[in-house]
Amino acid sequence: MLASWYDQQGPAAEVLQLGDVPDPTPGPGEVRVRVTVSGANPGDTKKRRGWTGSAMPYPRVIPHSDAAGIVDSVGDGVDARRVGQRVWVHGAQSYRPFGTAAQYTVVPGDLAVPLPNHLPDDLGASLGIPGITAHRTVFADGPVDGKLVLVNGVLGAVGSLAAQLARWGGATVIGTVRRGTDLDRIDPAVVSHAVALDSGDPAAAIRTHAPDGVDRIIEVALSDNADLDDAVAANGAVIAAYATREDRTEIPFWTLLFNNVTLRLLGSDDFPAEAKRRAARDLTAAAAVGALTVEVGARFPLTEIAEAHDLVDAGGRGRVLIDIPQWSRAGSPHPHGAK
């Protein structure tokens, strides 16, 4: 099969390679998926760069955990009727060496989730890491029906899905964006009230809509927003943080303590297995009724995976997707700029 891989960590153009590797074979309890679209996430590029000093976990890594595709073979113990089923894939390269930047990927059967026929591959390839993270931020502490949920970074990959899931779950959603110029990108059907962090007093603006405070805060940058979160949290609120800008993040400890605030930190690779299964079920159900949409920012052929990784690292709007060719060619050229 045609695949992209790296044998050492470093810049995308220097370490990502492209060529033919042996087709994988599903083992007991596994399925093989013919990948149509692979989703690239910041977590994938961080692993490739060796972020926070992480070493190569395997001698060779095929990157990316998310994808959409079709089950084309199954291992022992898996219902043979799954062959031909459209699926979305998550966790393919979580504690496994070979992910979805390839024509085929092999995963445990429950990581290949049936994708309703009326939903596009692009949506399926965009649900994995951001969707399961978003689900956990919203629902890890129970239902949100009737609650006020603040989503900081509501236009981001996780934030946008968290807002949609919270609305689907019956919450009233307040969202923040970094700049006032981004307010016109907010969907009022999902976000009831939007606040720009570059406004004069964002905490006061949030309190206008939540005079008694918000019940849940979905946090993309805890180091930046800890004081804001403290200022708007209701007594007994939960701050669910999945990212920060400073490794050693400071928080206003005593005011959070006296307000009985829970700080929940979330790392998607290590969510409990049942939490991932529930997230996959809910994400599929919400998407099936039109409650979830994603913005595709850019797409690349597999031959340009290095450029795709660089775009993910640079940030920007929307998901970055990789189209996987449905053919194999020995001696395929390396992507432009890659070795």
User: Which H/E pattern describes the elements?
Assistant: EHEEHEEEEHHEHEEHEHEHEHEHE
- N-C termini distance: 19 Å
Report the principal-axis shape: globular
Q: Give me the count of strands.
A: 15
The fraction of residues in strands falls at 25-35%
Oligomer: single chain
The poorly predicted ranges are 329-339
Overall pLDDT level: 95
Q: Give me the secondary-structure category.
A: alpha/beta
Rg: 20 Å
Instruction: Give helix % range.
Output: 25-40%
In DSSP terms, counting alpha (H) and pi (I) runs of 4 or more, how many helices?
10
Question: Which secondary structure elements does this structure contain, and how are they paired or packed?
Answer:
Layout: E1 2-5, H1 12-15, E2 17-20, E3 30-40, H2 42-49, E4 66-74, E5 86-89, E6 104-108, E7 112-114, H3 121-124, H4 128-139, E8 148-152, H5 157-168, E9 172-177, E10 193-196, H6 202-209, E11 214-219, H7 222-232, E12 233-241, H8 253-258, E13 262-265, H9 273-288, E14 296-301, H10 305-314, E15 319-323
Describe this structure in words.
This protein has helices at residues 12-15, 42-49, 121-124, 128-139, 157-168, 202-209, 222-232, 253-258, 273-288, 305-314, and strands at 2-5, 17-20, 30-40, 66-74, 86-89, 104-108, 112-114, 148-152, 172-177, 193-196, 214-219, 233-241, 262-265, 296-301, 319-323. It has 339 residues and is of the alpha/beta class. The model is unreliable at 329-339 (pLDDT under 50). The strands form 3 sheets. Strands 3, 4, 5, 6, 7, 14 and 15 form a 7-stranded mixed β-sheet that branches. The chain has 10 helices and 15 strands. α2 (42-49) crosses α10 (305-314), α4 (128-139) packs across α5 (157-168) and α6 packs across α7. Helices cover 27% and strands 25% of the residues.
